[in-house]
């Protein structure tokens, strides 16, 4: 109950991806009304090995924060990393820990392991651990399990909002739409699966197979040119 993992993901405000729609016969292309916004919003999600989640942190792009963006209530750089651990992670986990040591697993970004972050963690008995380079595809449970479901739920939530209101999702609407998707995606079962699938809890190194840790190799030998090329180009 004192082991946590945090990761960040980009969330689109517009409706992305392809859908199947019903339309008039004889038309090869069908059109669906919806927002075309391609701006993304950063979300920081923290999950616990007991199946619970912390309140997510949503980060909008821009120099100034409008209060209406948070009524429904990109980084991470080093300044916001220390701000997050001080004002979000520590307050939300301190009472539950009851003076026990807490463990926080994060990607090995340099912004996560600055001197202020490490000093704060040492002061408040928080062990901050980073994944080895190029291993998050196997070890980061949020990537392995949770975020794919989150993107599906968010896509559906955006489509539902646009269909209901006839408007694209504005920044002032986003936290409400994101929150509805978050609740559906981050269930106790999915959070527990994120820890189990990566062997973190219950601790099981055998789930990480050797092939997952092999260095990346160039496996594609087929050309992807739209037109047939001459022999030298093919080679």
UniProtKB/TrEMBL annotation:
Q: Which InterPro entries match?
A: CenT-Element_Derived, DDE_SF_endonuclease_dom, RNaseH_sf
Highest taxon of source? Eukaryota
What Gene Ontology terms describe what this protein does at the molecular function level? DNA binding
Locations of Basic and acidic residues compositional bias? 1-21
**A Pfam family matched by this chain, by name?**
DDE_1
Q: Where is this region: Disordered?
A: 1-36
| GO annotation, cellular component aspect | nucleus
- Every copy of the DDE-1 domain together lies at 41-157
What is the protein named?
Answer: DDE-domain-containing protein
Protein source organism: Dendrothele bispora (strain CBS 962.96)
Lineage, top ranks: Eukaryota, Fungi, Dikarya, Basidiomycota, Agaricomycotina
